[in-house]
Amino acid sequence: MYDKQDQLPIGVLWTRRFYSGVINHSLYINKSLFLTMYDFRQCFEKVWLEDSLLSLWKLRMTYDMSKLISQMNKKSEAVVKTPEGETDSFQLGPNAKQGTVLGPVISSASIAECCDEQKDGGGIIGTSQVRSLSFVDDIAGLNHNIKDAHDSHVVTLFSKKKRLPLNEDMCYSSCQCPHQ
What we know:
Largest sheet: 4 strands, antiparallel
Distance between the termini: 41 Å
Helix content: 40-55%
Strand order of the largest sheet: 8-9-1-10
């Protein structure tokens, strides 16, 4: 779904507006804000169903729901579009199916677990301590000082644990400092 004015996906626009609000709030309360942005490469293609189910379990999903999701995603068929036409359909093993109602939930479960595992650092938004924010396959680490920003490498360790490579071209850090 695209915004007609900017021709950007709605999710990208929402994320930009949200981060602008976080930055403006930090400047309003006169605190520096260190944002570290992480993007997982081909997250939806690389998600392992078993890892996603374990992530959902850690995030307190019930056993019955886990079993149901596992059965629904046990196997599927795929067809690949090529310049010469479509391939014959072929069977896939257990995977996080795209284009289904539960696809985004399953695919973003590992990202949510990563945010849940981040225990250090963070920034203050209103009266809440926020360590990280996620949107689909992106994570933003928020910190008010450089030491916490440097120490918050949970995402890079998590990336190796879940076999989800980071897209180095889309990962960056920025610092917003109030005027003195």
